[in-house]
Amino acid sequence: MSGRQIPPGRAARRRGPLSRAAVALLAVAAGLALLAAAAAWDAARIPLGRLETRAPFPTALMRAREAEARRLGAPSGIDFRFVPYDRISALLRRAVLVAEDDAFFQHGGLDWNEIGASARRDLERRSFVRGGSTITQQLARNLYLGEERTLTRKLKEIVLALRIERAVSKRRILELYLNLIEWGDGVYGAEAAAQHYFGTTADALSARQALLLASVIINPRRFSPLEPPPRIERRVRTIAGRMLRRGQLSEAEYRLAVGEPAPALEAGGGPAEPESAGAETPLGTEEADTDTAGVAAPGDSVRQAPAPPE
């Protein structure tokens, strides 16, 4: 047999680093598995309460905001008024779904594609920022977990979202979400936001008011619907365009919301796709928006879906 023999010592030295790397990888995997199991166990023991009939109050997020205000010596308070699902504007309900979780009525609480994309972003940034969360996950975080940003919190959020989906209906989840979401410092829920910003009620919001509220969810403590910056106006236009194409918004409502005529209709009667927009591209957010965002997670992607039941 020809060929050069590799001395046994050298072969061992070559295998050594590989073996150590394999052991390290297995140790990391085992650690993550234990962490996931512990988080799942903790989340499974958190009492959900009577979500079907009672609105939990105060939420974990409300308590966290109050504690933050006390630490800073800042004024605090909770403006919160729960109203039934049917007393929240249908325009606001639809706009929030388009902006935050367009597949809400199709998934079981989790969007695995977005969870994977969010995990990859977190690994690249070496930090745990928000993104990839469905409305159910956002509700779980709001109710029970607060604002902590760790892998453990994310795992708990996933388990709680699955539990919530099994416990109550989609309609009830959306009702709770719209009543408990943060819409500015100390302002929680659609009714409080409608009265605080526009002096009206949640069921009487105009098209523009509804779309502005949906658009500032990406960071309700940074952006105000009363003084929307250009990027919020762009979000209003994007959400309005999608709702118009789906028949969820009339041309008159589009004009009121955006301040310009509706896009031209195609020959078949449907509104034409704007030249500058892709086909239902996700509503993105900048990383900076995660710094002080409220309940709703910035960066949650949007997928085209049928109109939700009324």
From TrEMBL:
Cellular component, GO annotation: outer membrane-bounded periplasmic space; peptidoglycan-based cell wall; plasma membrane
EC number: 2.4.99.28
Residues covered by region (Disordered): 260-310
GO biological process: cell wall organization; peptidoglycan biosynthetic process; regulation of cell shape
Catalyzed reactions per annotation: [GlcNAc-(1->4)-Mur2Ac(oyl-L-Ala-gamma-D-Glu-L-Lys-D-Ala-D-Ala)](n)-di-trans,octa-cis-undecaprenyl diphosphate + beta-D-GlcNAc-(1->4)-Mur2Ac(oyl-L-Ala-gamma-D-Glu-L-Lys-D-Ala-D-Ala)-di-trans,octa-cis-undecaprenyl diphosphate = [GlcNAc-(1->4)-Mur2Ac(oyl-L-Ala-gamma-D-Glu-L-Lys-D-Ala-D-Ala)](n+1)-di-trans,octa-cis-undecaprenyl diphosphate + di-trans,octa-cis-undecaprenyl diphosphate + H(+)
Domain of life: Bacteria
Subcellular location per the Swiss-Prot or TrEMBL entry: Cell membrane
Topology relative to the membrane: Single-pass membrane protein
Biased composition (Low complexity): 260-282
One Pfam family cited in the UniProt record for this chain: Transgly
Family per similarity comment: Belongs to the glycosyltransferase 51 family.
Pathway(s) the chain acts in: Cell wall biogenesis; peptidoglycan biosynthesis
Name of this protein: Biosynthetic peptidoglycan transglycosylase
Coiled-coil intervals: none
One MF annotation (Gene Ontology) recorded for this entry: peptidoglycan glycosyltransferase activity
Primary location: membrane
UniProt entry tagged with the keyword Glycosyltransferase: yes
Domain Glycosyl transferase family stretches: 80-243
Native species: Eiseniibacteriota bacterium
PANTHER family in alphabetical order: BINDING PROTEIN TRANSPEPTIDASE, PUTATIVE-RELATED, PEPTIDOGLYCAN GLYCOSYLTRANSFERASE
Keyword line: Cell inner membrane, Cell membrane, Cell shape, Cell wall biogenesis/degradation, Glycosyltransferase, Membrane, Peptidoglycan synthesis, Transferase, Transmembrane, Transmembrane helix
Ligase as UniProt keyword: no
Class of enzymatic activity (EC top level): transferase
Taxonomy of the source species: Bacteria, Candidatus Eiseniibacteriota
SUPFAM superfamilies from the UniProt entry: Lysozyme-like (SSF53955)
Function per UniProt: Peptidoglycan polymerase that catalyzes glycan chain elongation from lipid-linked precursors.
